[in-house]
Amino acid sequence: MINFIISIDDSTRFLFSIIEIVKSKGVDVKVFEIHPNEDSYKKQFDEISVIDKNSTIVFLGHGQNDRLYGGEDPNVFEKKAFVALRHMNIFQQQCLFLLACDSAELIKSSFRMSKTNKSIGFGGLPTSPKEIENDRKFANEGISVETIEEFKSEIVNTTALSLVEFYTDFNSLKDYLILLLDKRINNAVLIKKNTHLAELLFKMRNELVLY
Fold it and tell me: Which residue range forms the structural domain that includes residue 138?
């Protein structure tokens, strides 16, 4: 079984496709949705804290190097830390996959505290025009909305297929995800002739870490 945690806001809606693909391949899943309200934050935190040890947990959402964010409604509820650095021990003795910006640094900073079995994290994953503008490397590259949407699709497909094949073996999961990303980078360069897409995929691949 894979335990999916997903923060609910408009910018994370596309990540539900990962869950749907995994389910369609016959993998059992349990989904914890963090909605933009205090009650949901607390309820999901409490439920996640009692997931059986040695399980696989996949977080889908936003992050920084010192937190994972919960849900957001810009007009009603601003996102805030769902799991702060000091609370990363909620994932003790779990296999943890964090599909969130700067999650590699979060895992590195919290490793002694969290004591996970295995953890996979990423660097920056810019999936909106605003996030592209805030990225020093890509801000002035003129990356189109269409390329951002293609990148989001590649994230969904490569992540989902890797989880289906190897969610019980994180060493192989990392290797397989890198293999898929390498193939998609080659496809972006040789077939699609889209160097911006290739650069985004390379960033995802190059900053992926396993602890």
Answer: 2-210
